[in-house]
Amino acid sequence: MPSFKNLPAAPKAKKKPVTTTHHGVALTDDYGWLRADNWQAMFRDTSILDPEIRAHLEAENAYQDQIMSETAALQKTLFAEMKGRIKEDDSSVPMKDGAYAYGTLFVKGGEQAHYFRTPRAGGAIKEILLNGDKEAKGKDYCRIAGLAHAPGHDKGLWGYDDKGSEYFTLRIRDFKSGKDLDDVIENTGGGGVWAPDGKSFFYTMLDENHRPSRIYHHILGQPQSKDRLVYEEDDAGFFMGVGGSLLDDYIFIDIHDHETSEYRILSTKDLSAEPKLVAERLTGIEYEMCEGGDVFFILTNDGDAKDFKIMQTPVDQPGKANWREVVAHRPGTLILSVNAYKDHLVWMERHEGLPRIVIRDRRTGEDHAIAFEEEAYSLGFSGALEYDTDWVRFSYSSMTTPTQLYDYNMKTRERILLKTQVVPSGHDISKYVTRRVFATAPDGEKVPVSLLYKKDIALDGSAPCLLYGYGAYGISIPASFSTNCLSLVDRGFVYAIAHIRGGKDKGFAWYENGKMDKKKNTFSDFIAAADYLVDQDFTSHDRIVAEGGSAGGMLMGAIANMAPEKFAGIIAAVPFVDVLNTMLDDTLPLTPPEWPEWGNPIESARDFAYIRSYSPYDNVAALAYPPILVLSGLTDPRVTYWEPTKWVAKLRELTTSSNPIMLKTNMGAGHGGKSGRFQRLEEIAFEYAFALKTAGK
């Protein structure tokens, strides 16, 4: 096994104890001072960060720089490999809408997408509507939130975030002149929905605590201060977004947390009207909707439909009293989404972890499915931009099969392969194996694990392994094709994804049994996956590197406390590790909306005790922790920078091993890391260099 030798002196955070009491329990936080009091303002202007906090973060960066410097050549090699698998001058297959087809492309050496259109019939003519590289020039960070063309195809709405704080500014690009109009809309969620006449749009405004609390209507040419407030959500526990229909007949206001939802709709025939409530929010009842001509289709779990069902209701009487079932609930088959077109209804569903697309002829009621035969694969449905169409688009990939993009005729069932992902440096599918195995959790549940490895590696326990996990919010990690992980697999790694509870891989119950007071199942599932891979000689505990980000970073913190001896190393990206303190702070952007996921420790002594029993920061102990690499972003509004910073300080204070615990804070980015496509590869190369060094390759 490798070791990190001749380590420099690690930064030592000062202790400034602060004690608070909750439910009769005293909590002392030695490192709470690392939370900047002016964090809201700092997200917009990082220069005002407290100098003492900045100095500590910079010292941490210098420490990990020194340790990882010996991998500099390896990082360059990994970056070159990953870049070599990307077609630099790639282009999407544009999607038809009216007289045009819209898409994105990248140019050789470019970091950002360029948004273009062609005549509907196609051809070589590409009209560049927005040059992402030009917009990002001179900026350390620039994330573009897409380009939404107006119904008249004469202009487009686009947004950008140049700090990583996810406060987006909206602009309107005139397609004829190539210049932006004078309108500047600030502090938004990043997108908007055009009114049918193209003279105004609706958008979501973020408040001072980064919550999407208001929907506004902006008329072109007016200052933002004159925008009409369409709807304001008073409950800080709910997220909110605004969308539209393919027919441009309705504006949808979607209000939801992680278990409850509510829709309000506005007919585009009267933009000055108040939005109309569809069905009032009831705790635990979710629904989402799309337009289907004279009806709305509604995907819901109402009436004990745990894995969801599809209803329809008249557009002029959308209330729950008029909902009628069109696709019944089937326990164990989770319906993920629904889309409606003139003659067809389309939904995606998942059974035993595998997705499929089901299409119903709305005239005859006949159903048919699109499915594939590999043990593990991923499907994506991008649908169509038009309502009156027989053609929709979907993508397919597996861990060995590069992404294939298809157009599919819902009437004739003709399938046209539009594009296969090109790997310029080459990719021989026959050299790799993808498998789907099942680990047994402590309570007997079977946890799916997707595997990718080269056919010629010895499965005798000697192979290193990167084991990835997430397990929260019902998000399922697809077994899709990734060119990046080939840099590990080609060096003899087994690449594994543990589909643990907290996701919806095996239905909604899989999610329910990995949240709230069942959260610890997520952690024990992941450890069970590691044990299974060792028991079956895929790897050994001293060769497993665990990786997870955000809520998956919390998973990393938990397994580090529960079973540090079972992992050779841990990579925790923007890790949500200070769960108890964050859930006790209702001023933070995500705290109130997150209570249905984790519990409310402010109101509930039981929730307080349960979260405290697993929260990684609160459970750091005198243990022999493996090498740990922690990644953070200074302007991250989702997992604030002080969470990983505090966690590292406490880990380093208490660990009984000599293994390094490193923190790398991106001082110019947020939750998603750097914004450019190749800049992101540099970050992955850094993580993989750590994994290779830790696992002895």
From TrEMBL:
Domain Peptidase S9A N-terminal: 13-420
Top-level division of the source organism's lineage: Bacteria
Domain called Peptidase S9 prolyl oligopeptidase catalytic: residue spans: 480-696
Record keyword DNA damage present: no
Positions of the UniProt region annotated as Disordered: 1-21
Pfam (any one): Peptidase_S9_N
Record flagged with keyword Transport: no
PANTHER family, per database record: PROLYL ENDOPEPTIDASE-LIKE, PROTEASE FAMILY S9A OLIGOPEPTIDASE
Sequence similarity: Belongs to the peptidase S9A family.
Protein name per UniProt: S9 family peptidase
